[in-house]
UniProtKB/TrEMBL annotation:
A Pfam family: adh_short
Domain of life: Bacteria
Keywords carried by this UniProt record: Oxidoreductase
Organism expressing this protein natively: Belliella baltica (strain DSM 15883 / CIP 108006 / LMG 21964 / BA134)
GO molecular function: oxidoreductase activity, acting on the CH-OH group of donors, NAD or NADP as acceptor
Protein name (Swiss-Prot/TrEMBL): Short-chain alcohol dehydrogenase
UniProt family annotation: Belongs to the short-chain dehydrogenases/reductases (SDR) family.
PROSITE patterns tied to this protein: ADH_SHORT
Length: 252
């Protein structure tokens, strides 16, 4: 069988980790990235036998580190077939007038510029091969805005726009570009957003059944395994209890 390679950013946790496992289960060899090295290393244990694994530890905000990690890939890892741009988080949930510059920098630098830096390295590889699939993990926050979501929503609207632009510009090269936009998924997302406040974070997912990271991962695995002539361009995925960014039915 042809050797297939997937690179997943933010694979130390949540959606990225589940996606690395799901893609390994359908035969992809896995390049997993993130900043927490021990978590990256331990992911190997969760992949099926026979799947090769390459952990790459870098901060997506550091464009030199992104460049040297991806341009320095060993020869047998260079032909990336699937890129999943997943690394990202919300930082804070505050009215715009009291938001922090550090939080704003983090969200724009990681969610938007980090996605661009990684894509900048991988797109030429796919263009040269006239083949490849890029999955960008956006959010319902990239389709709608909610109170206090301001800059996070802005970063995810940017991801949505960039995804649509990528699809147009990469179309002549046969590269598929897929936007996946989840609603509420129970991961470490809210722990990060609320800076380690577990009680506040737990409340986000109480009283209804949220999505699990595996739900998103299954959908990504399904989307990347469609026939060559089919692209699932734009996928919005919500828990059944969620009707919009702000409407969650806690009585189901
Ligand atoms: P987690 O907090 O569980 O995972 C976030 C991942 O991003 C981690 O692996 C983390 O790795 C990585 N990451 C964060 N900052 C950086 C950085 N500077 N450099 C490299 N990697 C980084 O959250 P989720 O799994 O929920 O989030 C994944 C994506 O899904 C994000 O883009 C998020 O916006 C999006 N999303 C999440 C939803 C949810 O409700 N959970 C809903 C909609 C979209 P490490 O810290 O090791 O670097
Ligand atoms: C994560 C989902 O609703 O917190 O993107 O923005 S939400």
């Amino acid at each position: 069988m042809e050797r297939k390679i997937a690179l997943i950013t933010g694979a130390t946790s949540g959606i990225g980790k589940a996606t690395a496992i799901a893609l390994a289960q359908i035969g992809y060899h896995i390049i997993a990235t993130g900043r927490r090295k021990e978590r990256l290393d331990s992911l190997k244990e969760e992949l099926p036998e026979g799947i090769d694994f390459l952990p790459l530890c870098f901060d997506v905000r550091d464009k030199e580190a992104v460049h040297s990690a991806i341009s320095g890939l060993p020869e047998n890892w260079k032909s990336i077939d699937v890129l999943v741009n997943n690394a990202g988080n919300a930082h804070g949930l505050d009215p715009i007038q009291s938001g922090s510059l550090e939080d704003w920098d983090a969200m724009m630098d990681i969610n938007v510029k980090g996605l661009l830096y990684v894509s900048h390295e991988v797109m030429p590889i796919m263009i040269a091969r006239k083949s490849g699939i890029i999955v960008n993990v956006g959010s319902i926050a990239g389709k709608e805005v909610y109170p206090n979501g301001n800059v996070y929503c802005g970063s995810k609207h940017a991801v949505d726009a960039i995804t649509n632009g990528m699809r147009m510009d990469l179309n002549p090269y046969g590269i598929k570009v897929i936007g996946v936009h989840p609603g509420l998924v129970k991961t470490e997302f809210s722990i990060v957003r609320f800076k380690g406040d577990a009680e506040r974070s737990d409340k986000v997912y109480q009283g209804f059944e949220p999505l699990l990271p595996e739900d998103i991962a299954d959908t990504i695995a399904f989307a990347v395994s469609r026939p060559k002539h089919v692209v699932l361009a734009d996928i919005v995925m919500l828990p059944t209890a969620q009707a919009s960014a702000t409407i969650v039915n806690k009585n189901l």
